[in-house]
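Many introductory courses stop at the sequence. We go one step further.
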Amino acid sequence: MSVANLDLKREIIATCLRLEKLGFVIGTYGNVSTRVEDGLLITPSRVEYHQLTPADIVTVSLEGNVLNGRRLPSSELQVHLQIYLSRPDIGGIVHTHSIYATTVSCIHESIPVIVEEQSQVIGSVIRCTNYIPAGQHKRLGEEVARTLGNSMAVLLANHGAVSCGRTLAEAVFTAQIVERVAYIYLMTKAIGSAIPIPSEFVNSERERWLYKYGKAEDKAVDN
């Protein structure tokens, strides 16, 4: 095991424990992965997070073949694999069952861009997939990748959410934004309907957050 992969495997375990502390996963419902040069590293199937060791994290090629690991990869491997295949800009993925995002997934609604942090971090609508029955792993992976589109997050109908990032740390941050946005969306539905941010400002805010935020070129625009 290379030092780099050892560090990444430890980061995956730390991420699982953080997601559990946030209340975004329970038991073994949820999974985490990060892209590596020869494919991806992913959590194993049905192993409690507090019991994970680096040796439990599975290395899988982009063809879906296990390259290293003593356990089976997550049963939702195809979700991660199909996203990595279709989105080379994504380097980390977390699948969660957080309360508010899962609630919205149960009404099969997509969340329009309604708050600034959604436009910046997620960059688009948080779309909801069609319902895919349990066990149809390849079909679920393809449906998730298709529905994700150009966004950094997607809802899995009656299931939960998948959040992405350029890095694993960013994917966790995306998951936090998804849960916050889902809560706000449900609150707006209780009092009326949210007014989406115009698409041109969504695009400009996403561009700003990716390439300018916190840098000298990120200057205020005076009216």
